[in-house]
């Protein structure tokens, strides 16, 4: 089955594109037919487009953080994998940095991770085809967004095992960072549920890799922060799901009790989804809420009393409702729509996420929230939920050295567009990060924390020599994904 998305996301400027014909190393610029340069090198023929208009370059210098802005020389909107191969080969030859970016609504990174100063941004939304939906997997272009895949699979009773809270994220983007959600306690990360990857290497070659074929490349690229190759297509796992979601919430008195119940539920597998949220209050306290979901068939709802039995929430705070499964997966859509109207969607988002060791998590979270006023979270919320280390197989996603990790996310929405406010919140993230390291935690590599080279070495810890060795094998000229700032030269 071949399903073509109707979305094409180029020509954001609205202006007619001027064909780019050449690159001038001396001018460090892409040239159109009206430009002249003695050292002009013709660019290869492309199926898609190379955009050099200032508005297109400005769009590629922005992300959901609105904190960092690095302008590329050009934006490639590929119409084929071959376009990416040719562009990467060309850039490697001329030492131009290449940053893959999910450009729809700008990238959802918040600290310039997909930007490429004076380089080439590849707008992965140009590759947006769902190639096949099979009984146990789907083959999709990297620019397909998770909600687009779900719209095709849910009518067939199938879903990817793990979904992020926001499903308007690109498949290539979340496979590159990890992809965590309320199904992670049972199924691991999205990067643990990919079966095969098509990767354009830093040489511009196309490789197909999996756990059994070219496994070194496969294990480098999933969760590899774009450092080892560009994911252009993926075979992602699908599992059978039921069409309805019974959705439970209840309030907890403290983080330790919340975590203890979440861990018990995780071990028991009672629910299909378990998360925890902290909602900041006007008095700077947090309402701690568990959120659990059981999928079910029409006419066979779960027994609410049995589902909540033995949990230690504050009596009387429990609530339950039923939703179509797609509506539950797309539950952030109304918030996105509302905050686009209020303008908050467009303010800086200096968010940060960490993985804490379970033994330290309750104390660390309580003490961090005690010094985090509501204004520092804004729309928020805070996320708190555990998952087992054993489910995470992607080697370059460092976790604490304990069997259970706890996701702790400060999903900050800045109260204004003032860059000084965002800078202050990014500095606060750094303070929290240093505390996280002291208790043996790790950063989830999305969001806004300023890191130097030494921080990245500490981040990968015992895995650093392997990470470096793979970089030297797969991207020795350090062309790929400069916006992560791991190799800043
Ligand atoms: C509202 C909101 C909710 C979110 N909820 C969750 C959540 O529940 N769980 C979670 O895990 N994350 C969540 N995220 C974070 C999200 O996973 C990251 O922002 C991630 O970067 C994916 O976004 P993207 O598809 O826009 O990728 P981008 O931000 O464009 O890319 C992420 C990184 O991967 C690189 N990259 C992108 N595409 C490719 C590719 N094809 N090949 C190689 N490298 C590539 C980029 O250069 C960049 O370094 C959320 C983000 C937002 C804004």
Automatic annotation (TrEMBL):
Its cofactor is FAD. Residues 1-29 form the signal peptide. Keywords: FAD, Flavoprotein, Oxidoreductase, Signal. GO terms for molecular function: cytokinin dehydrogenase activity; FAD binding. GO terms for biological process: cytokinin metabolic process. Residues 68-241 form the FAD-binding PCMH-type domain. Belongs to the oxygen-dependent FAD-linked oxidoreductase family. This is FAD/FMN-containing dehydrogenase. It comes from Nannocystis exedens.
């Amino acid at each position: 089955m071949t399903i073509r998305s109707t979305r094409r996301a180029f020509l954001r400027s609205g202006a007619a594109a001027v064909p780019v014909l050449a690159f001038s190393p001396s001018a460090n610029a892409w040239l159109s037919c009206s430009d002249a340069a003695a050292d002009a090198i013709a660019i290869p023929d492309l199926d898609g487009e190379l955009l050099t208009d200032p508005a297109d370059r400005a769009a590629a210098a922005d992300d959901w953080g609105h904190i960092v802005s690095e302008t590329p020389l050009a934006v490639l909107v590929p119409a084929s994998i071959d376009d990416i191969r040719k562009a990467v080969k060309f850039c490697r030859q001329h030492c131009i940095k290449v940053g893959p970016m999910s450009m729809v609504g700008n990238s959802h990174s918040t600290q310039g991770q997909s930007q490429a100063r004076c380089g080439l941004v590849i707008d992965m939304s140009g590759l947006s085809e769902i190639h096949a939906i099979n009984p146990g997997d789907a083959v999709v272009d990297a620019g397909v967004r998770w909600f687009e895949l779900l719209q095709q699979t849910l009518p067939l009773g199938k879903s990817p095992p793990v979904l992020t809270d926001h499903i308007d994220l690109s498949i290539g983007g979340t496979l590159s960072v990890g992809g965590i959600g309320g199904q992670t306690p049972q199924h691991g990360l999205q990067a643990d549920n990919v079966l095969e990857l098509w990767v354009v290497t830093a040489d511009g070659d196309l490789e197909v890799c999996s756990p059994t074929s070219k496994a070194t490349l496969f294990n480098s690229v999933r969760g590899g922060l774009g450092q080892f190759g560009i994911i252009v297509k993926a075979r992602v796992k699908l599992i059978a799901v039921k069409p309805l979601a019974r959705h439970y919430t209840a309030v907890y008195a403290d983080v330790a009790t919340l975590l203890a119940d979440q861990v018990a539920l995780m071990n028991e597998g009672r629910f299909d989804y378990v998360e925890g949220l902290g909602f900041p209050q006007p008095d700077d306290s947090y309402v701690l809420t568990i959120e659990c979901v059981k999928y079910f068939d029409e006419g066979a709802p779960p027994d609410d009393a049995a589902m909540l039995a033995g949990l230690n929430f504050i009596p009387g705070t429990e609530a339950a409702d039923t939703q179509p499964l797609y509506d539950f997966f797309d539950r952030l859509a109304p918030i996105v729509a509302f905050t686009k109207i209020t303008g908050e969607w467009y303010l800086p988002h200096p968010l940060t996420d960490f993985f804490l060791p379970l033994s330290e998590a309750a104390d660390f979270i309580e003490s961090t929230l005690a010094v985090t006023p509501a204004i520092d979270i804004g729309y928020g919320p805070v996320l708190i939920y555990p998952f087992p280390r054993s489910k995470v197989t992607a080697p370059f996603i460092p976790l604490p050295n304990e069997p259970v990790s706890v996701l702790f996310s400060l999903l900050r929405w800045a109260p204004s567009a003032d860059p000084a406010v965002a800078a202050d919140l990014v500095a606060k993230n750094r303070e929290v990060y240093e505390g996280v390291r002291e208790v043996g935690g790790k950063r989830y590599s999305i969001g806004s924390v300023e890191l130097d080279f030494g921080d990245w070495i500490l981040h990968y810890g015992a895995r650093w020599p392997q990470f470096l060795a793979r970089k030297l094998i797969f991207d020795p000229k350090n062309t790929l994904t400069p916006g992560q700032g791991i190799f800043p030269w």
